[in-house]
Amino acid sequence: MPAARESLLDAACTALARRPWSAVRMVDVAAAAGVSRQTLYNEFGSKEGLARALVRREADGYLAGVERALADGPGDFREQLAATAEWTASAARENALVRAMLTGCWSERLPSPALAAVSSSSAVPAQRRADGPLPTPGDFVALVRDRAVAVLTVSDTLPDATELARSCELAVRLALSCVAAPPAEGGVAELVRTALPRRLTA
Question: How distant, in Å, are the alpha carbons of 73, 85, 133, 142 from that of 82?
Answer without folding.
Answer: 9, 5, 29, 17
